[in-house]
Amino acid sequence: MEHSLLVWLLPTLALVVGVAIGFLIARLAPNAAPNRTQRQLDDIQERFDSYQNEVVTHFNTTATLVKKMTASYQEVQEHLADGANRLALD
Q1: What does DSSP assign to residue 30?
Q2: pTM exceeds 0.70
Q3: Which residues, other chains included, contact 78 with Cβ-Cβ below 8 Å and sequence gap of 6+?
């Protein structure tokens, strides 16, 4: 009975000690993982902000071009109407 208890107790104890040591090393290490994660997060945020600015610029340019196109279309319509009034026979 003592032998089977020892067979299970030692590996379990070793596992608990290993997890504790790993946790302490991860906590006391020079914060490599959190800094790397923060850098990745900052990089992603910067790329997202850049993408957002590109999208806003794209749609602003599109709106300006559509406004110009509408004005040009109106000018063509007016030109055609004037020409039809002047040149068409009654």
Answers
A1: -
A2: no
A3: none
